[in-house]
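User: Quick one: structure for sequence A, then sequence B.

Assistant: Sequence A:
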Amino acid sequence: DGIEIDYDGAKHTLIRDDDILVKYSGDKLTLESADVVSDNVLVKVENSEEETASGLVIASTAKKGSKPSTGEVVKVGPGRMASNGEI
């Protein structure tokens, strides 16, 4: 969705601020290194699986149109910046 540009001989993609949900520092994204930005919320979704009568396990993500409806809030962003510069 972003615009590709060439900067110092390397390709980069420009994206909007609204497209950024989480930032992190270090080599690996972990819960401890993740910082939620703006007014976003990081939610840990329960892993719900369903077992059929014959013993097949069906992941909740395999169902068409199903989205998780419950979870645990693990991190919250600081809020959106107002026009006067305050958060």
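Sequence B:
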Amino acid sequence: AIDEAQKVWLYETLESAKECGQKVIILSHQPIMPESSGDVCLIWNYPEVLAILRQYKCTVAAAFAGHAHKGGYKRDEESG
């Protein structure tokens, strides 16, 4: 899971990037997006983290994760 301090950091970092007109690429060890891997591999609070990323869909260019060794890909229909 991503704890409260990390979620605050993520929100503040994305807000700063948005204000500066920057694009961001998210890298995480465990997947955040459902259907990109088995449910057991997702971070426990992925709905909360995904909600933050979706707020910044014009700032977040992509999100990549490892952990699942079979690979996987899922485009978020909500944020594009």
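The radius of gyration is 12 Å. Strands lie at 24-28, 60-65.

User: Thanks, that's what I needed.
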